[in-house]
Specification:
This protein is mainly beta. The protein is 2% helix and 26% strand. It has 1 helix and 8 strands; from the N terminus they run αββββββββ.
């Protein structure tokens, strides 16, 4: 078996295979929530307990919802559509120190992709009713995956710079630092 190793120079993408030069996704739906501004929005689903919303899956993707009602929780993959730029060093919500963006869950990222675990309340047609939503109203949905705890069975987890701050996660709300 042959292995192909590709060294990527982040400042020169001209040598990348054509399929890696640009990646395009199309939304499969829209997420609706009570949050119209980043300010005061929960920063994670664990701090959004009780907040409800809906996921409107576009009709052409509705068939893909077959059997989803059997799952209590879903992973929503979405696009941070209001983030126009990014910084590689950020001061996250739960710390006053600067960290690399990849060591945080800051919304302004090189590829503005967000992931949230939400509770599925019910399905009506191509609309999912969800709870514990921490996503802005009108956010484009890229994908839905069922949450299966056995697939996320990480053992001996370390939380880096968040150590000792875990009790603040459920109460922390967003401010304007990433607007």
């Amino acid at each position: 078996m042959q292995c192909l190793f590709l060294k990527i120079n982040m400042f020169n993408v001209t040598n990348l295979p054509i399929a890696m030069k640009k990646i395009t996704y199309q939304p499969i739906g829209i997420i609706h929530s009570p949050f119209t501004s980043t300010v005061r929005t929960p920063i994670q689903p664990s701090s959004a307990e009780g907040y409800q919303g809906t996921v409107e899956v576009f009709p052409e993707y509705a068939e893909g919802l077959k059997d989803i009602e059997g799952f209590s929780h879903l992973l929503l993959v979405y696009h941070f559509h209001l983030s126009q730029d990014f910084k590689l060093l950020v001061k996250p919500y739960l710390d006053d120190k600067v960290h690399g963006v990849f060591a945080t869950r800051a919304p302004k990222r090189p590829n503005g992709i967000g992931i949230s675990t939400v509770k599925l309340l019910r399905v009506e047609g191509h609309t999912l009713y969800i709870e514990n939503v921490d996503i802005l109203d009108g956010t484009p949905l890229l994908d839905i995956k069922p949450y299966v705890p056995q697939f996320h069975n990480a053992q001996h987890v370390k939380v880096g710079w968040l150590t000792g701050k875990e009790n603040r996660i459920k109460t922390q709300k967003a401010d304007d630092r990433f607007d």
